[in-house]
Amino acid sequence: MIPLLRAAVVLGLIAIPAPTRGADVEIPKDIAVPAGYKDVLTVKAKGVQIYKSVADKDGKLAWVLDGPLAELTDAKGTRVGCHFEGPSWEAADGSRLVRDEAEKPRSVSKGNADIPWLLIRVKSDDPKPGALTKVVYVQRIETSGGKAPAEAPKRTGTKIGVPYEAKYVFFAPTEK
């Protein structure tokens, strides 16, 4: 639990400027956003991917993703929201998104120590209008860190936070 507490304290103290997605970032076709959508918000996430140790049917222990916990900042370093289990995203204005279970996320692995890049279909989890209200897709790119520890857990129920950073790009339908 100490790593989680430490991560929570660090999250409360940091604010890293997040440059917007540049033209030099090549998005793999497997996670490309379908036609008819435009990016409406790009943020930087800095936090942890939380893993929990579980035993399989044979009693072998393994790390399983429990969820993220990250602070979202804009290009100026201003805190604009948070990302947490579900997966869920909540903007500072209270608008909130959750993964749309009707569509499986698409992923592309970009490195051994880095969590994959993703495209996730989302839906509003709050009728309150806000920055995230019209968002339909969230793309996670430029990831660093966050993969489960290579060393097997020692006992069931243990949780650990693995530091990660990423950019999240939010897409809404193009208005005609």
Automatic annotation (TrEMBL):
Record bears the keyword Signal: yes
InterPro entries: DUF3455 (IPR021851)
Keywords recorded for this protein, A-Z: Signal
Span of the signal peptide: 1-22
Protein origin, superkingdom: Bacteria
PANTHER family registered for this protein in UniProt: CONSERVED FUNGAL PROTEIN (AFU_ORTHOLOGUE AFUA_1G14230), MALATE DEHYDROGENASE (AFU_ORTHOLOGUE AFUA_2G13800)
Record's protein name: DUF3455 domain-containing protein
